[in-house]
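USER:
Class, as today's exercise, take the chain set out below, and explain how the chain folds.
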Amino acid sequence: MTAIEASGLRKSYGDVHAVRGIDISIAAGETVALLGPNGAGKSTTIDMLLGLADPDSGEVSVFGGPPTAAVDAGFVGAMLQTGALIRDLSVRELVSMVASLYPSPLPVDEALELTGMSALADHRTQKLSGGETQRVRFAVAIVANPKLLVLDEPTVAMDVEGRRSFWATMRSLASEGRTILFATHYLEEADAYADRAILMAHGRIVADGPTNEIKAKVGTRTIRATLPDADLDALRLLPGVSSAERRGEAIALSCADSDAAIRALLAEHSQARDIEIVAAGLEQAFLELTGDGAHSEPSAVPPAEAVT
């Protein structure tokens, strides 16, 4: 079953083209990360998928129907960047009020337990810290007992322990077959928890697939080795080497052809030790695939077979 199907979505605000014709298909049960720099169109896309904004053109369906119908049926829970908690309510009162709006909500105590807010259930919402406020927003999103969770920067303001607890809960929810779509600036979260990542830049999708496939698109590798007193200019001239840096007694070579580079390095510097060859990380792939100069023209949109 398809949870989200979007075809040809476009949205502009005056002269600003926020989303420029994107296609997205997310199967029920998938966990998908939506990535991109500020201004890439992520939040506008999420708003259209939730029925909070109408596309200028294109179509969106959620579980086979209009997004608003899925929301009304309690199929969708959302945690957005905008909006504040209602003041002068306790956490329990707020979550209970939201639960009452849905046909088959989770028990309020279960939602509080899942989000780590049981101990703070009687606290007033305006007295909470930033991280605690995020956890209450999460409780409000999941108390509907949704089949689809849409989360826009969900772990902003959470500390390390809060983020770890949040993702442990998300893994549990995903294991129950729920569909999860989340936008984040924490690339390590996408790499660790998403089945698939969708990268956006300039309102377009520039990559869509498992994070290991996205990293492979970049094609670069880094050779690291301990090599004191090596001449960086000479290292830059080795076959397959794009750049060279010194890091204390170690060197780091960015390579377009790591096989040629490692052979040349060992031929000229047999004393090199502690050698590692590391594939491009998601951060490097993200920067290269979403860079300002890479995808500013329509011709840079990937072919249809690369976008699902």
Notes: The longest helix spans residues 160-175. Confidence is low (pLDDT under 50) at residues 293-308. Residues 2-75+146-215 form a domain with the Rossmann fold fold (CATH 3.40.50.300).
